[in-house]
Fold these 4 entries.
Entry 1:
Amino acid sequence: MDGGRGQPAVEATSFIAGHFSLQSADIKRSQNAAEERQSSQDLADDLGGGAKPIGFARPVFIGENRYDRRVTMTQDLAAAVSLFHSLADHSRLSILRRLSAGEARVRDLTDELGLAQSTVSEHVGCLRECGLVVARSEGRQNFYSVSTPEVIDVLEAAERLLAATGFKVDLCKTYGSDAR
């Protein structure tokens, strides 16, 4: 099974008490290294060649099993910080969650989420400016949807991370719900 995105392949062998027990697949190291170099080059090309990605493998332990996972990020983390900042609002996350189910108008979002029309318009505008949401015009109406499947992937990964950590971030003194 191919892990994709420069990650080693893993096979889920059982699901016990909410945790996957993973078994590493047999992968040739030289083939992995070549794929990782190519994915880093692809990322650099996607970034316009100006930003140089840094990648490092770190061991990850799940249960008793260990596997190495390549983490590729740009050296300038400003864009990543901006991305997470754009997601750091309850209203924007609610809008993205709703749009992950399908397109909607501002009116639909207002009715379904119980937010003011001006609030929804402001946050949809922010999400559009950030490239996370796109609009499709039909007559005088705009239908909004998530711009790429990767947006949904990030939201799903966040849900998995919250579940894996037992939602402990909500207890954090700096960023938890009591800090707000």
Note: The domain at 77-180 is CATH 1.10.10.10 (Arc Repressor Mutant, subunit A).
Entry 2:
Amino acid sequence: MDGTPTDPADVSDQRTAAQRAASERAASLRAVFASSPRPGQSPEVAAGPSTFGGGRRPGDDQPAAARPAARPAAEAKARRRRWPVPVLVLAILAGGAAAAVATGKVHIARPNPAAAEGHAPATPPPGPNPAGSTVPATASAGAEAGPKPTATGRPNLALGKRAKASSLEAAGFPAAAAVDGDLNTRWSSAFADPQWFLVDLGAIRSIRTIRLRWEHAYAVSYRVDISTDLKGWTTVYRTTSGKGGIRDIPLEPTAARYVRMYGTKRNSVYGYSLQELEVR
């Protein structure tokens, strides 16, 4: 048949030419893949030696020390790309701090002098209870000196009112000192039993709480009486184990004009000493 080689030598030559063409194509593909940059590799490094000029690149004739370093150049370029990032972060942080200062939302912690000196921090006073409720308070020898709000928040009806006492330790400790609202003053009796202290509210009032603020010389055995006319007395509290300090006596709403503390036994050789008697 025409065009079909019949000589075995011709067949072998054709196969050899086909294999040579396939090898050349494979070599070309390998050269293309070899010259392609890998992930994270710069094109200059990936390119390798150039094929022109007999397989040498421009500058290959120079000494190694004179050739440009590819790695330092790449690292410098990467650093140039990275430097705006920290600057941008710092700018954002500075802007947030300025906004917080402008809006007044910056909290600056201040040292607690009491904690630094080893003292316990002061406890804030309790808030008011629902209207009409009363909360009895127990006596405390180490109670704080400042006035405390009562459960009802009512004013002190005994403040500045006329007061009397069975005796005085001295002229500097009058009965009026126990109703003047000043905890630096006090009434103090003679050094004997029994003794009494009385306050006139000026009119018949509805009272709910009586508070006694004892000084260091306090009554161990005493009672608290109320009256509307100085004739009939009603005892609303009695104890034989008084502890001093602050003693709150809660009451149901009760009509009274006169309130009296009647002591029968002291805790020491001194007299009875009241810093304040409050009625609310």
Note: The chain has six helices and seven strands.
Entry 3:
Amino acid sequence: MSSVKGCLNFEHAERILVLLGEQAVRAYVINLDRAQARLAAFDAQARGIGLCYERIRAVEACSIAEAPEGMLPTAVACFHSHRLAWRKIAESGDAWGAVFEDDVLLSASLAGLLAEPRWIPRDASVIKLETVNTPTKMGRRGRKIAGCLGLHDLLNYHSGAGGYLIRADAAKLFLALSETIERPVDDVLFDLAVAKERGLRVLQMVPAVCVQDRVLAEIDGRAIVHETQMQTVSAPLARGCLTLRQKLGREALRLPRQLGNVVRNLRRGIVFPVRIRVPFER
């Protein structure tokens, strides 16, 4: 096992790799060069729970020449930063990768989950690890994975991209879908209409094992230590117009799949969903 010394020296290191042990799922943290305090705070947490990670050099908003209507350059830069992480995962040869923004607070159980990923369902595509403390609809019947932690099918939009697991083939798909950026990254990752259309299964960790500082500050009634890079603006995905014949053909192909979905949903407890504010595991 090797280690990298002086990993917080930004003058000499564009890429930071911290090795604290072996783990089966690589973790990537998105961080701006100028945000040394944020990385130091994340690094202290990671060392405290035994999590190793690789730093993704975040894209600066000042490098964005033009932003789509309704989006700030910060949101576009944030999306490009997540795309860098997706590309790393897609090209790594690994089955999964974990992506974090540098202002998240981590649960102590996170490192253990990444070290032993056999709990991940084979048909999962994206697993949301964080909460933004808003009412969220999910499958009532969850899958217990460790201690009090469980996985539930996510059934409506749950914002935020502060922490999630993504399968390598899903990372490739999202790279293709986001060659032209029109919406914030969390709007795309957790657009369940797109997930259903593409056959992706999106799950929610309950309780969440990470949370952005601004969210926990609101819950605890304290001041925010680190502002998030994320700016969210919802907008519909552009879709081409179909002819009547194309629409009828599409529906005919969907029917067997929809019947199969009914059976799978019964097994997963999705027929009678539950709406909760996902708590954070402290």
Note: The chain has one domain: 17-240+270-277.
Entry 4:
Amino acid sequence: MNMDLDERWSRWCERFDAAEHDIRTLFLNRHIWLSITEMWEKNADAIELNTLTFNWHINLYVTTQCTGIRRECDADTTTSSLQNCLQELIKFPKMATRSRFDASVEAHPAIPAAAKSIQKSKFDEFAASGQAPEIDPDKVQKDIDRLLDAAKTTRLYTNKIVAHRDHKHAEITLPWVDLDTALNTVGDVLKRYFTLRNPPEIKGSLTPELPLGWERPYQAAWCPPGYMPPRAKSLDDYVHPTAPPVGT
């Protein structure tokens, strides 16, 4: 499909916004996870956390985060991954120009006139040198390399252990520091290109504050008096009777 540069930029923005939404969710996940584990540590005697429950929570969190990080590093051109957004900039650098950047700053009513020249100068971070009119593909490639390098261990663990049962790599483990570093780098690259996507705005923290009262379900005992879980034998062919389709 032949597209002019305005159409390509519009499509790029849509795909970048989709990546931003999912990445912000990964940071929200980590905030919730750290809050829950802090509850466990501070109230360990009362909770009586056992290995089964502990491992179940870890598996949910790690699988979700690993899958999300791998998604943003995906090179498949049919996806709106963060890496593909950057690859599009390399392929079509003329769609992200200084003139487009400046026009966006000028059109924003909240930026004082005196500050607009400072905001416009931020395009220099993406340009080859001086007042170059478009982005420098080499700078974008360095960010892709940084992204993939930081996520290397997480992607390997996801591909070989989470997404597949690779008998040749069964010994692979994922240190917590590697998982956090991968997410931090995904977020850092996103924030860098958020400036290109939204010139008048500055991206602050990607980790949202948890809404007031979110922890209330954890303040009460979940099991009603006399509760017993369903018998395992009855669950082999279970289908939820009222659940909406996944993803809705």
Note: The longest helix spans residues 5-42.
